[in-house]
DNA sequence: GTCTATACATCGATAGAC
DNA sequence: GTCTATCGATGTATAGAC
């Protein structure tokens, strides 16, 4: 068996689509086969079972989004500029994959805790042994770039501001008028809104 | 048929548990019956179908959390104090129901847009014809209690800070050390963290 | 590798006795 | 109202021809 055959890729693409949309329980092998332009039997030939196929999709998507985060960490030494880049980069990755965060948050709560190894696997692949986001914040505090804040509380706030609007977009668009996540200007507007709100609270 | 028979209540309780944990697709009528201490046939006797049972559970939970929001809106005129009460009250409602927000965000994205009528139904029941959260923010701006900010952007940020930590708790607890959402002090610590971060960004 | 046909399990729903 | 027994549909997985 070739490692990344054309068919295998078509299946992974289709499976990613369906799983992200319907979730593991709602996804149907038949629908994945249809979208991949093949038949059900071939799915099992390549991936043995629905469980194994799901596992691969989840791993792929999870590592994608986490690598994305880790890569921005060392881009600039200026902390405010780092936050700006972080939001922009993260939203650019997340918004086109409309269901990604919704899917991950939903599915991860049903998993065994040992699957959190994905985090540290990815950290290690990028040369970190500890949570690098916490390290980055502590460094900014030590250097006097921001005032002393609880890194954990700050991470929860900041990630929430980035992720929630994307995840809840299907509802928000109906109750917050004129909101369009996919608008060309949305990302830059969101970047500025977050930084305006946050910076005064953490600047030294 | 009595309106709220004892059995009916037991079913609703069990169904709520299972649906919030497993989602609509992952939930099994058998498991709901087991947890309610009855058999499958009785489920259909009371609720006709899984769809109808789910619909009732979703409606109940959705209205619960939305009523909770609306009630705090008119508690105080001081906007900063309002924010504080909002966070506290919301977290108190959400945290004990560990899967509530995760469930709603997940399921609502799969629904027909017309189910967003639940929002305005609840708004109307409390005497509002427009989105009352936006109104509240606009009022604070008009009165000079906060500086002019985009209400939509602010709502996304603020809700994100409240909801995300609870929804993502299963992951966060593993990568943000010493974090315990269920700790007695968590809510007050979170309240202060959010207000510290936010207030400097919006005070006049 | 890819297909058709089918086995096997499970789930939602109903029939019918009490 | 509540139960047992079972039907019918659907979903995952496999057997076997090509």
Could you characterize the architecture of this molecule?
The structure is a homodimer of 204-residue chains. The first copy, chain A, is mainly α and 204 residues long. The model of chain A has no long low-confidence stretch (mean pLDDT 95). The termini of chain A are far apart. Chain A folds into two domains: 1-48, Orthogonal Bundle (Arc Repressor Mutant, subunit A), CATH 1.10.10.60; 59-202, Tetracycline Repressor, domain 2. The first copy, chain A, has helices at 6-26, 29-36, 40-47, 50-72, 79-94, 100-108, 117-125, 132-142, 151-167, 169-175, 186-202. The interface between A and B is large, with 54 and 54 residues. Chain A binds a DNA duplex (18 and 18 nucleotides) through residues 1, 5, 7, 28-30, 38-46, 48-50.
SSE blueprint:
The structure is a homodimer of 204-residue chains.
Chain A: H1 6-26, H2 29-36, H3 40-47, H4 50-72, H5 79-94, H6 100-108, H7 117-125, H8 132-142, H9 151-167, H10 169-175, H11 186-202
Chain A binds a DNA duplex (18 and 18 nucleotides) through residues 1, 5, 7, 28-30, 38-46, 48-50.
Features:
72% helix; mainly alpha; DNA-binding; Tetracycline Repressor, domain 2; Arc Repressor Mutant, subunit A; 2 domains; homodimer; 0% strand
Compact overview of the structure:
The structure is a homodimer of 204-residue chains. Chain A is mostly helical. The first copy, chain A, has helices at residues 6-26, 29-36, 40-47, 50-72, 79-94, 100-108, 117-125, 132-142, 151-167, 169-175, 186-202.
